[in-house]
Amino acid sequence: MMNKNTFAKTPPMGWNSYDYYDTTVDEAAVRANADYMAQHLKEYGWEYVVVDIQWYAKGAGSERVLFQYIPFSELEMDEYSRLQPDRSRFPSSAGGVGFGPLAAYVHSLGLKFGIHIMRGIPRQAAQAHCPVKGSQLTADRIADPSSICGWNPDMYGVRDIPEGQAYYDSLLELYAFWGVDFIKCDDICNTNLYQQNPYSAAHEVEMLHRAIEKCGRPIVLSLSPGPALIEKAWHYETFANMWRITDDFWDDWKLLKAMFYRCELWQEHVSEGCYPDCDMLPVGRIGGGFGQERASRFTQAEQRTMMTLWCLFGSPLMIGAELTKLDAETYELLTNRDILDMLPPSCRPRQIFRDEEKAAWVAYDSEKKAAYAALFNLKDEAAQLSADGGSLMNALMSVGMSRDVSFTGGKELWTGECTELATEGLPEEIRASLCAHGCRVWRLEIV
């Protein structure tokens, strides 16, 4: 059986179509963004190209003024109740070959291919009593009509029966044949329609996990939406690679400020192959599929704060921007090697303090023997912040650093400025004058 942690040794990094295209992404757009990633971002670790929601829906986005998801629209589907790409938007899928040609193109660029799915089985398959591969039961007997998504009308949940497992096995057999490397499954991490049982689809998480093990292809499993349930951390870690710790994250400072609490809650649960997910990076040009294309509303300082927190914490990184419209400032944000070096799970994070006005974090990389420290100004005005050396040292020791080290200085990773920090081997404090919502992060030089 495949170990899920052997193919996601670091948090996945890539591009997801949702923030720009919503439900309207097509093959030309996916290819164009893949081309850009291969030419400009791949060398920095960006590698996943993920087609988000409703790639199977005919006419998706055509009634956006009224509906994000058209109620009971026609879905492209094969004879075994499995959704297929809409041929009008993904012409290479004609002839029943699905995403195979598009995945092959992405792979030819040295990248990896991913898709979004909704948990469950298509309602139209259940209503038509369609067959399911590997099962004597038809879709109507496998579907659970009492298990639905509160915001998307496409699917019924799957019953916890062997025939339900057969359905998921057939899905993953198909996805492996296409060449899928990454699955983002929605309405599963928190089934928030059911407030008394918000993890009501736990059995479907396990079904997906077992189906991935059987399919013979290493496929990363990402669970959405959040907020993930901290009391179910053990289950996410056992059966998935990523799980969202927030609902949809957009370019709103209130949402970014709230992520400091969420990261504090989940900081003990980052490990190789298992990543609490802070959601996509709403940077660059976004919102095109919503009819409101715009530049990210985050200031430069807020974008640096976001990237610093995501990387220190160890979250997966998925760019939401239309890559072909990426500006120089955003490109520099996404290709800062010093910041991205904090991402691997060997770099263990720890919050030092947090309140409504400020936060401080450290991380220690046991493989590179590197220590990091960051200050964040959460106020709406400039502020002078500091963290004392004792708190800094105690936090670093709690994530594996030896007591016997000395610091000689530090490099600030956004400006490149070097600073002397040491007094007889231990910093008395780190301090910085920060603009509203700004941060500073240092790599500490250890001897």
Describe, in plain words, how this protein is organized in 3D.
This protein is 28% helix and 23% strand. It has an eight-stranded parallel beta sheet. A six-stranded antiparallel beta sheet has the order 14-15-16-23-18-19. Strands 4-6-5 form a three-stranded antiparallel beta sheet. It has 447 residues and is of the alpha/beta class. The model has no long low-confidence stretch (mean pLDDT 94). A hairpin with a 5-residue loop joins strand 18 (407-412) and strand 19. Helix 6 crosses helix 7 (202-215).
Number of contiguous helices: 13
Shape: globular
Structural class: alpha/beta
Our Rg estimate from Cα atoms comes to: 23 Å
Strand content: 15-25%
How many angstroms does the end-to-end distance come to? 43 Å
Strand neighbour order, sheet with most strands: 10-9-8-7-3-2-1-13
**Average pLDDT value?**
94
Low-confidence stretches: none
Instruction: Tell me the helix content.
Output: 25-40%
Major sheet summary line: 8 strands, parallel
Could you tell me the number of beta strands?
A: 23
Name the descriptors.
23 strands, alpha/beta, 447 residues
Concise structural overview:
Helix content is 28%, strand content 23%. It is an alpha/beta fold and 447 residues long.
Fold topology:
Blueprint (H helix, E strand, L loop, with lengths): L12 E4 L1 H4 L5 H15 L6 E4 L48 H9 L3 E7 L2 E2 H5 L11 H4 E6 L6 E4 L3 H17 L3 E5 L15 H14 L4 E4 L9 H7 L2 E3 L8 H14 L8 E3 L7 E2 L7 E2 L4 H14 L3 E3 L8 H7 L2 H4 L6 E8 L3 E8 L4 E8 L5 E6 H10 L8 E6 L5 E2 L2 E2 L2 E2 L1 E6 L4 E8 L1
Parallel strand pairs: 1-2, 1-13, 2-3, 3-7, 7-8, 8-9, 9-10
Antiparallel strand pairs: 4-6, 5-6, 11-12, 14-15, 15-16, 16-23, 17-22, 18-19, 18-23, 20-21
Helix pairs in contact: 6-7, 9-10
